Amino acid sequence: MEVIIRPTTQEAVHLTARLIADAINAKPEFKLGLATGATMEAVYADLAAMNQRNEVDFSLVKTFNLDEYIGLPPEDKNSYRYYMNYHLFRHINIDIRNTNLPDGMAKDEVAEGERYEAAIRDCGGIDLQLLGIGSDGHIGFNEPISSLAGRTRSKALTPATYAQNSIYFNPPESMPRRAFTMGVGTILDARRIIMLITGARKAGIAAKALEGPVTSMVTGSALQLHPRTVVILDEAAAAELTQKEYYNWVFANEPEWAQYR
Ligand code: GLP
User: Fold this and answer.
1) Is 14 a catalytic residue?
2) By CB neighbour count within 10 A (0-12 exposed, 13-18 middle, 19+ buried), where does 240 fall?
């Protein structure tokens, strides 16, 4: 794992977007894993701006989102399909048929999980998975005690996730209690992972996930098992990390980061 701390949220976001754009430019038929949440909105705005400046081309890119609420149709403003169309897909030159999310309205939940896994497998697997982290340490919707070997399936959401996400629902109680999510095992199969963590409220959980033990109580800690993961934080989210000096030295001195400093 590599940890990169940028002084501001904007710089952390911009570095994330640049790494994604550079990876797509190196392999146009890219398979990109996407995340939702407030943190990602600025990343998608950056990618959209780069696309409009012809700095990155999405015409051959296929995307797979991590998760979707169960019971929300695509046109519901709180569905992740709506979020993705709104924040990214309508602004870029992607073929919408190449964008994939679990179907929140699927009748057979087990079959939907299997369908999604097969779709990822059939296109050769995910080249780069973008991740945020929930306030309880989840990646996707892999809540505490999720199997670290899990695959795409339905999950019940914790009270912490309910508290964090129900503010977007009107009324808040209309937030679904369950969601489809890629499993931690699905996520770890991605060839590369970039996690973005911003803001002071994530400082405690960031330290647990990155420097604490690998545990299903904080599924973000499973990234420690992945050989090509970069975690990008702003200064506020990095506040409780103990090895900051080391991370900063690596970013300032290792040749692979020279073009991004
Ligand atoms: C949701 C998503 C996660 C995301 C999290 C963080 O729970 N399922 O994939 O990481 O939100 O959201 P935010 O960026 O709003 O803190």
Assistant:
1) no
2) middle
